[in-house]
Design brief:
This protein is an alpha/beta fold. It folds into 2 domains: 9-174, Rossmann fold; 179-359, Dehydroquinate synthase-like, alpha domain (Up-down Bundle), CATH 1.20.1090. 46% of the residues lie in helices and 18% in strands. The chain has helices at residues 31-35, 51-63, 82-94, 109-121, 135-141, 179-195, 199-206, 208-211, 217-236, 251-260, 267-286, 290-302, 314-327, 351-359; strands spanning 9-13, 19-24, 41-46, 67-72, 102-107, 127-132, 146-151, 154-161, 166-170, 333-339, 342-347. The strands form 3 sheets. The chain has a 7-stranded mixed β-sheet with strand order 1-2-9-6-5-3-4, sandwiched between helices. A two-stranded antiparallel ribbon has the order 7-8. It is globular and about 60 Å long. The protein starts with 8 loop residues before the first strand and ends with a helix. It binds glycine. Residues 140, 144, 146, 244, 247-248 line the site of glycine (GLY). The site of glycine has 6 residues, from loops.
Length: 363
């Protein structure tokens, strides 16, 4: 880890093909090298607030002899629509993009999901370089090669596993992020602390302000450690045959809450409640200590994330989780913890146990 130093940290993701996630400052200059020598054309897909950065990047790429196009797409989930993907394909087609050309995703998790999907599908796959601009994107969405769009039937139902050529996490891009957005994204950082790297939790507990300040070494260390957790897991199980599901800690209930809130909540807020629920369920099914459960609440509340949800919504949430389970042709599964850093899957728990766990989450 290079936390505290100014030089970039390179976190490799193993696999075929493997790729590097680079964390540092002022990294836009590294995009041309990350695109590689074979591309003649690059499409930069970006969200509206990043228009100036996208233009800066276009100029850099053009100076390096590449033909660079910019395409602004809607922000957040508005990016992950088939119409938006189709528009990207139209631009690639009209501009004669070949299999050796490349796409750059510059934005939050939704934009990098879309850019990755467009790259995965154009001519059966072209190189994508991801430049995430949110905490969620840096530690989760842009890192693991899951790409996709939503359909009327649900989120992420259409997509592909497509390894990026490189991921560049430029911490300078987080400076202008609204505080509540940064803290919501931080839910995925502490998730990595709960499932594998407790040092992340200590950083938050020791100095919350430093751990959540993009300019501080503590923030950089927490983000690098979260990326390292994701890189290790994805490197072992890119296509989610087993181990990768530990990254879904807090997500089974979290996804149901996101649906119940009609996707108006930030993802991190929903999975914050989901993690407290998973901890409560772990207490009942895996003997997780009271102290570890309370540690969840204390950390998430210090990040001003929600840890409770209305008691009368349980029936609705359970029905949503059951529907989701059917759609995926499986048992209702929860990632739980035997201890902090020791995840275990719990399959088909009794409705009574689930209800009991929810009682401790209900407002
Ligand atoms: N966000 C969960 C995963 O990448 O597998």
């Amino acid at each position: 880890m290079a936390a505290g130093s100014m030089s970039p940290t390179v976190i490799p993701v193993a696999g075929a093909p493997g790729y590097d996630v680079t964390v540092g400052r002022d990294l836009l200059g590294q995009v041309p090298a990350a695109i590689g020598p074979r591309a003649a054309k690059v499409l930069i897909v970006h969200a509206p607030p990043l228009a100036t950065r996208a233009e800066e990047l276009r100029e850099r790429l053009q100076a390096g002899g590449l033909e660079a196009l910019i395409l602004e797409v809607p922000d957040a989930e508005g990016a992950k629509r088939i119409e938006v993907a189709a528009f990207c394909w139209e631009i690639l087609g009209k501009s004669d993009f070949t299999r050796t050309d490349a796409v750059v995703g510059l934005g939050g998790g939704a934009v990098t999901d879309l850019a990755g999907f467009v790259a995965a599908t154009w001519l059966r796959g072209v190189r994508v370089v991801q430049v995430p601009t949110s905490v969620l994107g840096m530690v989760d969405a842009a890192v693991g090669g899951k790409t996709g769009i939503n359909t009327a039937e649900g989120k992420n139902l259409v997509g592909a596993f497509w390894a990026p050529g490189a991921v560049l996490c430029d911490l300078d891009l987080l400076r202008t992020l609204p505080r509540n957005e940064l803290l919501a994204g931080y839910a995925e950082v502490v998730k990595c602390g709960f499932i594998q790297d407790p040092r992340i939790l200590e950083l938050v507990e020791t100095d919350l302000d430093a751990a959540t300040d993009p300019d501080s070494p503590a923030f950089r260390e927490a983000v690098e450690r979260a990326i390292a957790v994701k890189a290790r897991v994805v490197g072992e199980d890119f296509t989610e045959q087993g181990l990768r599901e530990i990254l879904n800690y807090g997500h089974t209930l979290g996804h149901a809450i996101e649906q119940a809130e009609r996707y108006t909540w930030r993802h991190g807020a929903a999975i914050s409640i989901g993690m407290v629920f998973a901890a409560e369920l772990s207490r009942l099914t895996r003997g997780l200590s009271d102290e570890a459960v309370e540690r969840h609440r204390a950390i998430l509340e210090s990040l001003t994330l929600p840890t409770g949800y209305p008691a009368d919504r349980w029936g609705h949430l359970l029905a949503t989780m059951q529907r989701d389970k059917k759609a995926r042709a499986g048992m209702l599964r929860f990632i739980c913890l035997d201890d902090i850093g020791r995840p275990a899957a719990v399959e088909g728990p009794d409705d009574a146990l689930l209800f009991a766990a929810y009682q401790n989450v209900a407002d």
